[in-house]
Structures are given as C-alpha cells and as structure tokens.
Amino acid sequence: MTDTIDRTDAVSAAPTEAEGYNFAYLDEQTKRMIRRAILKAIAVPGYQVPFGSREMPLPYGWGTGGIQVTAAIIGTDDTLKVIDQGADDTTNAVNIRRFFAKTAGVATTERTTEASIIQTRHRIPETPLTEDQVIVYQVPIPEPLRKLEPRELETRKMHALEEYGVMHVSLYEDIAKFGRITKSYDYPVRVNGRYVMAPSPIPKFDNPKMDRMPALQLFGAGREKRIYAVPPYSDVKSLDFDDHPFSIESWDENCALCGAADSYLDEVVTDDKGGRMYVCSDSDYCQQRRDAGHIGDGGDPDYVAGRAAAAGGAE
Amino acid sequence: MIDRPSPLLQVRGLTHRYGRQIGCRKASFDLYPGEVLGIVGESGSGKTTLLKCISGQMEPSEGLIEYATRDRGLLDVYQMSEARRRMLMRTDWGIVYQNPRDGLRMRVSAGANVGERLMAFGDRHYGHIRSEAIDWLERVEMDIARMDDMPSTFSGGMQQRLQIARNLVTKPRLVFMDEPTSGLDVSVQARLLDLIRTLVRTLGIACVVVTHDLGVVRLLSHRLMVMKGGAFVETGLTDQVLDDPQHPYTQLLVSSILPV
Fold it and tell me: B145: which chain A residues are within 8 Å (Cβ-Cβ)?
C-alpha cells in the first residue's frame, strides 16, 4: 500500500497549473492501464487492444481516445502540438492544447519540428517526423472491417485467422461501379504484413507517410475503447489490386499562399461567384514556407517582404 | 472392388443432442468423389442437424467426421485448427443454403459475391477476378448485364443460381445443399435442378443434398438415405428406395407424393 502512496506523492510534486487535478488529468492507475495497452499494441503492430476508456471532459468523437493516450505518455519535459484537419488554430486543436497546458503545465507549440508529441485528427504533418517524436491519432472507428461485417465476434475471428478477402471486396465494388478505387480517407492498410488496420480518417494522401515512419504512431479510440500502434520503421502498405495500384490525390493547382506543390490542399470558397483558392491544409507547413520567402499565386507579397525584412533586421 | 476410390467424406457414429432432445442418432456413411447423396425425411427428422454437423458448422456431441484433404489425406474435421477448417469450407467445400440470404452478401454486387472467395484466396488482380466472375455467372445462366447489381434486386431463382456460382468459383470437390429448390416455383425449380445436375456431372463434384422433396432426389442423387426421428431408416440406390420402399415409413413417404 505504501508503495502506491509514494508514487502518487512523487507525481503530485510535479509542476501543475490547475489545482485539484492529477498531472495530465488522469489518475495514475488509469495511466498505468493505458500504458499497458499501449505496450501491448506496440508489441503486436496493428492489433486493436481493448482498454478501459474513461469519461473525459469532452464528448465522444472530439478526441477522447487521443487525449487519453496523450495523457498516459506525456511528461513534464514534453512539448505538445495538436492539429485538427492539419490546422493548429481550429476549435478541437485549440481546446485540447489548452487542456494539456492547464492540467499538465507542459509547453505547447504549433511547429512540427519543435514538438515531441503530436496529437492529430485527420492529418499527418507534411514535415517528416523523426525518431524523437510520437504521433497520436484520434480514431472514431478502429475496426476496418466494421462496414463489411457488423459482428464484433466475427471481425475478431477474421483478424485472428487473417481472413481479409472481404476487405478487397469493398475495393472491387468501387472499381466495378466507378472504374477506380474511390475510397479517399481511412484507406485500409496492412501493418507489418499481418494485421489490416484503419489508419483513422486521414486522407489517403498521408498513407505513404505511415510506411516506415521513424516516429512512433499511437491510435486511440475512446468510444470504441481500443488502442493500437505502429512501431517506428514498420511496413505499412495500402491495400490495392495488381492492375489497380494504390495512388494518392493530386491537384492541378499549387498552394495559393505558399506555392507548395507537394502538400495536401484544401479548397476554400472565397465568394458566392464561384471564386475559390487552394491552400495547404497543414497550417504550420504553409507558415514555415511563407516565412522562408515562398509565395503562391494568391499570396500577399507585402507579407513575405515584411517577414524577410524582419528576419534581416533581427540579424 | 479393386479400383474403387477411397471415400471423400467418412462419417462414423454421428450423434447430436440438443439438451435432452436428440437431433441426430448414430449416423454413419461414406461419400465417394463425384457421388451425389440424397437425404430425405419429414420436418424435424434431423436432416439439417446432420448437414450442419458434417459441413463443419456445428460440432456434434459424438462421432467422427473425416474428410480427405488434398494434401494430408483423411483428417478429422473438428480436430483440425479452426483456421484450416474455415479455409477448407471456403475453398474445397461449398455450402448452398435454403435461404440465399444466408449464403450471399446482400449488400455487395453479384460480381463481388462470386469474386469474394478468389480474393480470400489471395487473388489480387481485378481483371482476373472480374473475368472469372463473368465466366461463372455465365455457367449458371445469369445475365451478365446484371453482374454489378445487388443480389437483393434479384428473383429467388437468380439468387439461388448466384449462390451456386459463388460456391463453385474455387472448384470445390464437395458441395452441401440444404433444400436448394424449396421456395421456388416449379418452372424455376426445374431449370435450377437441370443446372445443378449439369454442373455436378461435368465438374465431378460430390454432393450431399438434403431435401423433403422426393422429386429433387430422384433427379439429382445416386444414393438415397431416408431419415426419421434422427436416424436412418432406409438407405440404398435412389431408384431402388423410391420404387421398392421396404421400411413402413419410406412406403408412407413415397405414397404421400401428390399426383398431378
């Protein structure tokens, strides 16, 4: 018993901003339980480990799974970045970032390169991640077979026995109907040549980034109570047919702000007369490029000139 | 007797109980490659219980069911690993259900239904899967123009033909059929029976057909077993049993057919 008390004391000694909360909101027993699930998930890449998901102070579907994983792995010396649809300034991202700033007192950042933990919804940053980083995905539906097989008992058996033929049935249907695979997000992947896994609703544009990524990838599904993981440098292959190979989205335009041709673009409607522009969905990546002097068709030359002058003045 | 082939399926002392109720009692028989075996009996006589037990869907209370696998000879169906049994059921066996909804994926197209087994087997070439599906849909006399339609839009007879195509695409050696034609009207029934007979003959598939319809077994099966109260009461060549029934129950059964 004394052992438990000691540990709690040691943790409560850590610097926290909010009074009355344990470090990073969750109690230590819960964190231990989640860490055990994470360790198992890393040991069996792509396998969905059940865990006792807790109530969190935000609704299901807003990232309760991701928050619990982040809370279980975050330490006082971590720097956290949170993105939603690639952007750091959207409601979900801002809320979760402030949540951890308040309950864990950790440093937060919007720069991908400065972060040690990146919690994400719907995107992987354009800047390649490193071995020193962990990316935590928020997952709504962890079971890739769910739409094809409603019974949990059956899907578990299919995973156990590697019966993944039905996964290709859905891709076949796409080609038969539309002449190509139309699935564009949450595109199923096979991890380490074994488990078929849902990569969470990231665009398939990001799927190749998962393959042999140096960073540890953790996935948390709060409502479905599942955690899974892809260890660093693991093979992640998108499912496809030999004569209809996997391909990612491409655009005719470049980013209107920074001129990037290699990033995932969002279409932004600018008026009610058909005006539109394409901009990077990764706001940090776009910012870094503009600060470095890149400019797109719709970019503001004064802004870029101003930043360049400011950078020159600082030197 | 020297050139007699070894049996494909061996059933010994199969008994299945539902609690205190007996579903099937001490059934034993052999099935040889290319042979069509009919099992008839009234409702509740244990036909479906027997079929479920021998087709790997329900483990019997007692008894031994052995299947001659392609690579390792006779193996006990319920002693092999579940992975192997399920693989066997998907590739070397076929199961045609009375209700097509049990055997088909109703939410995916007819072509995908036929292609599913190929994809489960590791076929990753769309063009090849597609052409195999077309080939088999043609063999079961289906309209190729409808191969991308959902099975739920098909008539009962078409659904049943689709089920057969889906099962035969991996060239199984043994097909189980549970009342394949009941629920269809007579003209559709006749066409389906004709189709099944042609396929079974040309492909040399062994078949176990369970039905209450004596006309179906007369047309399809070589050998016939009559079930009552969970046990076989009479077995023999189909024409022998139907033309010269020995057991009182078989006599009753044969005399119960309504003349047209």
Answer: none
Strand order in the sheet with B9-18: B21-31, B9-18, B62-69, B73-76
Query: pTM of the predicted model, to two decimals?
Result: 0.84
Which of B87, B8, B88, B46 has its CA nearest to residue B231?
B46
Give the C-alpha separation, B12 to B7, whole Å.
13
Do residues B40 and B214 make contact, with C-beta atoms less than 8 angstroms apart?
Answer: yes
Other beta carbons within 10 Å of A253: 16
Q: Given CB atoms, is A153 within the 8 Å cutoff of chain B?
A: no
Region B72-94: mean pLDDT is: 91
At residue A26, the pLDDT reads: 94
Chain B interface includes A175 (CB < 8 A):
yes
pLDDT digits (tens, 9 = 90+) for B68-82: 998 888 999 999 998
User: Would you state the structure tokens that stand for residue A80, as one six-digit string?
Assistant: 């956290």
**pLDDT tens string B172-207:** 999 999 998 887 888 888 888 999 999 888 999 999
**B131 burial level (CB within 10 Å; 0-12, 13-18, 19+):** exposed
The three-point CA angle A192-A198-A204 to 5° equals 95
Radius of gyration of chain B (CA): 18
Contact A165 B119 (CB under 8 A): yes
CA distances from B211 to A89, B76, B226, B244 (A): 67, 26, 10, 20
| Interchain contact, B121 vs A172, CB within 8 Å | no
ipTM for the predicted complex: 0.83
DSSP state of A241: B
Spatial neighbors of B131 by CB under 8 A, at least 6 apart, are none
Residue A124 or A10, more confident: A124
* SS3 state at A315: coil
Rounded CA separation A59/A289 (Å): 35
DSSP conformation letters of B84-123: HHHHHHHHTEEEE-SSHHHHS-TTS-HHHHHHHHHHHTT-
Distance, in Å, from the CA atom of A264 to the CA atom of A251, rounded to the nearest integer, reads 9
Strand partners, B74: B68
Residue A307: predicted pLDDT: 65
